[in-house]
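G.,

No rush on this.
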Amino acid sequence: MRFIAFGLLSFLANLAAAQTQTQDVIYMKAGGTAFTMDVLRPTKPNKAAVVFVVSGGWISDHSMLKNVEADIKRVFVDAGFTVFEVVHGAQPRFKVAEIVEQVRTAVRFVRAHATDYGIDTNRVGVSGISTGGHLSLMIAGSPDSPVNAVAAIAPPTDLADWGKPAYVFTDDPQLATFIPALGFDPNAPKKDVEALAKQLSPISYVNAKYPPTLIIHGDSDRVVPLQQAQIMDHALAKAGVEHKLEVIRGGGHDDKTFEPGMMKALQWFQAKLLK
């Protein structure tokens, strides 16, 4: 009987855990396409939310979501945060500017349905890794920013000054494949490309009302230069924004940065959203 009871309790525990996840919640429809998010609800919610932008190279899909979901549950959900895992439209079908608007709509959807999910609209954070971090920072810089804190892991921040001044992101031969995604005209004058790159760069939207910002970056990142984190850190300091830069020694654009980065993001959100 004890074995039966134990088995029943295990079954009920697993069932309860499964009931905390709602898949494929539609946050917007456009052009015949539905854009969705998965919602993870903790057993003991703290009324704070983390919007986690699932993105790599401005591509997003549910297979990518599955790769990070276990870590998201372990880090954020176990700590009481309700997590909204946002899947956006993928480039090259959608330009980066369109993707920014999709993610902004997702965050506004979360705020509009705060009562349904038991969250406080004054306790909404946004986070992501790589281009997910870029999109998080872009949202944070929106007029009347819809988030109260941001934690970006290894994010591009200035596409017009990539590693050095006046070196556009796509000037790097390895990154030239992103020209269509960014909407750059390869035949346009350099100044026009630089202007568009600035429009798509979070650093361009830093202002005194920017929310508390944490940036985590590895000092051995060969994909996104550490310089991107450093110049964003300088811009935030100049604007008087509460901010912090955490540099992971020996960390690349990989799990050596991403895994501790998520834990540092959790600590940031606990400090800034649970006051």
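When you get to it, here's the other one too:
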Amino acid sequence: MTNQLLNVWDYEAAATELLDDGAHGYYAGGAGDEVTLRDNVEGFRRWVLRPRVLVDIADCSTRTTVLGQEIAMPLIVAPVAFQRVAHPDGEIGMATAARDAGTIMCLSTLATTSLVEVAATGAPRWFQLYVFQDEGITRDLVARAKDAGFTAIVLTVDTPTLGRRERDLRSGFTIPENIAIAELGTGGVTPHGALEMMSRSVTWRDAERLAGYSELPVLLKGVVTSEDAHLACEHGAAGVVVSNHGGRQLDGAAATIDSLPEVAAAIDGRIEVLVDGGIRRGADVVKALALGARAVLAGRAPLWGLVVGGEAGARRVLDLLHDEIRLALQLSGCASPADVTPAHVARR
């Protein structure tokens, strides 16, 4: 069956058939009327590529660097919680797939596999962090991530409270008792219950303190305005991820691809800019590069691969996206991600 799945959309359709309604709603759903969820995908259709011709692309490479680390393509695996609900391979399978694809795995605070177990895969790895009400938990998680060889902290900043995710409310989705949040030892929770442990009082001062005591580069995930982009530069961030939490927080917020130019212009090369949300094709990645991103993060796309085929399915989706990125670069007249410029894209 999997050899008939030719793209991310095919994997999403197959995953939908395999998941029960509660789990599918959790992974696929968004907040409110899901306007922002849909617009993250549709936003890429508002931008068109402007290919250049008669360019030598015989030796086209997809390789790039993010925070000084070389990766095989400008796509990183985004943090997705509770991956063992999707498939028994869980985060270990996803990390192994990322490793074999030559890219970075970003592990969620709400992972169902421990930091040490993911580190044992040898995958290049970042740790996504929520700030807990108990500061001791936050500091301990950062210390454990550092000890386990994670090379960056991705601080989620757009979740002072949980968005209204009505699919979860209708289904009553709960993490099974036998699947725990590995670093917290908590099982049988709802997504809302897990987020109740997080602080609603996180400020720029906290982000700056984290950048100090973690001794690791800190990226702020959830920056979508020029005002906050300037503040990120002023408060010690090594980078930002332009993100609206996959349309799962504030419904009615702009698509991330539309927010990206504003943020990139405000940062003006001072720190690195990444983007997530709506990535389904390699051409989407090239558009994001043209609009100012160093790389993209993709969460749902490899997650659908994990659902369908475990580690092998996740790797297959990453391979498909790698091949599509390479093709989009070649047909745009770019021999590498570094060759993509703002002139390669235009508003439709």
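The domain at 2-347 is CATH 3.20.20.70 (TIM Barrel). Residues 300-332 form the longest helix (33 residues).

Enjoy the weekend,
O.
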